[in-house]
## 1
Amino acid sequence: MCIQKKHELSPFLNDNQDICQSVQQYAHEHLSVKFMCEYIHDIILPNMVNEEWSVLPNEEEKYEAAVQRIVGQHGLTCICPSMVYNWL
C-alpha cells in the first residue's frame, strides 16, 4: 500500500497501487525527480500502454494517444517534474 505523507496522491497513483509502490521504491533508490520522471515516461507508461493497447513507443501517434488516454483516465493532463516532486 502506498504511504501518504504531505500530499494526497493523485487518482493515477491511488488507482494503480502496484505502480505507486514501484515509483516509491525507485525514488528511495535514486532520490531524483529528474530520474523519476524518466522512469515513469520510459518504463511505467510504455508498459501500461503495451499491456492495455498493445502499442509500443515506436508507433508514435498511437503511442502518444494511448498515453494521453491513460493519464486522462486518472484526471491528469501530463506527468511533469513538479507533479512527480509532489508524489515523492
## 2
Amino acid sequence: MNGPGRGPLTAIAALRRLDIKLSRYRDPETRDILLDARTSMEYAMMAPVHEALAADPRISVWLTSSERPDRAAAIYRQAIGGAHLITPRRAMAMRFDACLAADFVWASLPRGTCRVQMFHGVAGKWAHIYDRPATSMREWHRLFFINERRLRNFIAAGALDPDSDAIRLVGMPKTDSLVDGSLQRDTVLAGKGLDPARPTVLYAPTWTPHSSLNTIGEAVIAGLIDAGYTVLVKPHENSFDMAYENSGGVDWAARLNALLQDGRGLLVRDGNASPWLVAADVLISDHSSIGFEYLLLDRPLVRIEVPELIRRAGVPEEYVSLMASAAATVHQTHEVLESVERGLDDPGQQSDVRRQVAAELFYRPGGATGRALRELYQLMELTEPDMAASKGESADSQPVLRGRGAA
C-alpha cells in the first residue's frame, strides 16, 4: 500500500518515464546535457568532458548557473563555441538526459534528469560539506569520485551506502592535461609574451579573509618581483568578490594589477589553472586544491602555513599533513623567497613524497576524461563513439571501480 505522498511521487515518475520515451521515439539518437556551475573554476572541472561531448553531433550541450544566473556569461567565458547559454527558468522547461555539476548545486528541473556530480577539488576544505558530508548524497545518480579517500569518507560519514550504484571512481578530468603532454611550459609562457628562459614562480593562494593573500600575499609578490622571477599570480575566483567572507572586503583586482603593472608580473583570472601550473617552475600556495594538483608535475611546492585559515575552512588534519609532507612549509616572506630559491636550485628534493601524495589523491591521471565519457554515454543509453573511447585508456584496460569494490 502506498504511504502518504507516495501516489503523487509515483505519478510524477511515470510521467517522466513517458516524457523520455516520447523524446527517444521522436529522435532516438540525440541527447541533451546541462552543465550547471557557480564559478568558472567549477566549469573548468567539466570543460574536458564538455569539449569531447561537443564533438559528437548527436549531443547538444547547454550551460546554466542555477545559483548565479547574473554571472553566467563570465562563468562560461572560456567555454568552447556551440554550447547554448540558458537561464535557469528556461532550463526548467526543458528535459535533459543528464545534468553535470562540480559542486552541490541543484538546478530545478521538473521534467527530471540524471544528476552527475564531478566535484571541484581535493584539498578537504569545509569537510562537513565536501569530504565527510553531514547530509545524504543519495539523490545523485552518479558521483564521479576523484580518489578513493573521499569515497571512503563519504561512506564512513553515512552519506552513501557502500554498494551504491551511484559510485564511480573516475579521477579529475581537468588534470589530464598536466600529464598527457598537451600543455608545454615554454609554449604557455611565450603565448603570453613571457620569457621562457627566466625562472617562473606561480603564487596561487586560496580565498577567505584568512588566506595567505590577506596576510603576507602582497609582500610575497613584491619580493618575487624584486628577485627577478617571472611572477604569475592566480588567486581563487572568490577573492575577487568584494564580500568580506570571500575577500576580506579587499579589491584584489585593483591591488594586484597595481602591484604587477609595467610587465613585472601577470595576474591570472582563468578558471582553469592547469596551463599556469605547467608554466611554473615553483608553486607557492597555502592550502588549496591547486597545490595538490601541482604535485602531478613533481615540481617544488612552497606551503605558507596559515593556522587560522585551516581552522576556519574546517580542513581535517589528514589533508594538512599530506600537503605539509610534500612541500616546504614557511610562515614569513623571507622564508618564502628562500624556499623558492632552494627549490629552483634542487627541484628533486621531496620528489618521492610528491609522487606518493599525488598518487593518493588523483585516480589514474591522464585517463579521467575517457572514464567520465564512458560513464555518461552508458547513463544516457547512447552508443559511445570512437572519439570518446580515445580519451584515455580503453574500457577493458581501465575498469571503473564501483560499489564495495571501490571502497
## 3
Amino acid sequence: MLFPPQQTVRTVDKGHGRIETRTLTATDILAGYVELPHAQAVFRVTRHTTNLQGQLIGNEVVYGVSSLSAVRHGPTALLHFVRGHWAIENKVHYVRDVTFDEDRSRIRKGNGPQVMATLRNLALSLLRLAGASNIARATRYLTTRVKETLRLLGIP
C-alpha cells in the first residue's frame, strides 16, 4: 500500500447556544519519514460552529502531529486528547492567569518567574486537594484565616 489509510471520526456537541461539529482525520503516513522523535500520526481537526438556528458562527481547521498511532489508537482517542488540551488550559492556566493575575506579574529576572509559577501551582494543587471548586473564593477565604492556611500547608 502506497499510503496508509486515513481514519476519521466526527462528533456533534450542542451547548452554550451553539452546535459544534468536530471532524478529525488522521493517518500514520509520516511515521518514520520526519525528523520528529516519536512522530506517528498527523491529523486535521475541522471545527464547524453554528448557532441553534443553523447560521454559521465559524469554521476552524487545525493540524497536529502525535506520538500515538492513528491506526493503533484510532481517531477517537486522538480527538479525545486534542479536546483534553483545553481541560488543562481551563483548569490550570486560566486560574493562574485570572485568579492569580499571573500575566501582570512584574517578576521577570533570574529564576523568579519559574519559582513564582511553581508556588502558584502548589497553591492551586493544595486548594484542589482540600476540595476547593472555586479557587478565587477559597483564596479569599484563607487570606484572613492564618491557622487554617497553616493547617492546609501541614504546619501545626
## 4
Amino acid sequence: MDVRRSLARLLGIGAAAWLVSTPIAGQSPAAPQQPPLIREGAAEKISAHVYVIPDNSVPLVPNVGIVVGSKATLVIDTGLGALNGGAVLRAVGKVSTNSELYLVTTHVHPEHDLGAGAFPPATKMIRSKDQIEEIAASGLDMAKRFAGFSALHADLLQGAEFRTADITFDEEHTLDLGGVTVRFLAMGFNHTRGDTATFVEPDKVLFSGDVAMKLLPSVGAGASLTQWLTSQDRFTALAPVRVVPSHGPIGDASIMSDTKRFIETVQRRAAELKKAGKTVDETVTTLQAELAPTFGASPRMAGPIRAAYAQAP
C-alpha cells in the first residue's frame, strides 16, 4: 500500500472518527482528538546514542525510542499498526545505517506493539516471558477493542498481529549494539503483566513504559500497588539522567519519586478511610477532591484509589 495515499485516505475521515470517550492504555484522551499517527521527521536526539520521536501528547501515540550503536540499532515501541510502524522505520533510516535491527516494546497494548508488521523480516524481536504469556492469554482482544473506536482505528489495525519473539528472557537481558549496552528489565505486573523497561547504560537513559510517567499511574486490574513501589525503587537504583515514559513528557528521576509519593499517599489514606467505615465509592470521591490540589485532577486517579482500598487490610 502506498503510504501517502493511505495516509490521505485515513485523514479524510471526519473529526468525529477520533472521538474516544474512555481512557485507554495509560492515557486520558481529550476530545476532539488528533489522529493516532506518529509524526514524520520528528525524531529528536536526547543523548549520544538515543533518539526519541515524541508523542506530542497525542492519545494512542507512544514516545518511540531509537538507540544507535556502531553495529546495530534498537527500536522501542512501534505505533498503532503497520502505517505507524513504517513511519518509525523511516525515522530509523535517517539516523542509522546499520542493517542489524532489534525491536522491543514496553508492553503489548496495540499502540506500542502492533506496528511491528512493518519491520523487516530480519528484525530480531525481544520479549520477556511475561509478555509472551500475556499475548498467549489475551491475544488480540485489546486490538479488537481499539478497532471499534472508529474507521480510522480499524484501518490502522487491519491485519495486525503480534510478532513472534526471537530473543526471550525471564528477568533481565543485556544486548551490545556496538559500544552501547542496553539492559531489558521485566518489571512484573504494574500497568500490564508484561511491562518491560529498557535502560541505555552509557547514556543513562531509561525507557520506563507506563510504569513511571508524569501522568498519574494507570494500574492494571489486579496489579499490586506494592509492586508499583518496588518498580519505582528499581528504576531509581539505575540512577537515570533522562526518563522516557510511554506517554507524556520526558523527565528525570523525579518521575519515580513523584509516582512513589502519590502511591504511598493513596495507600495510607485509602486504608484510613476504609478503617473508618467508608465505602470504596466514598473513598474515591473523598480522595479525588483531597489529592487533586497536589497531584492534579484526573479520572486516572480512581483506579489507584480503588486498588489501594481493595488491598488495604
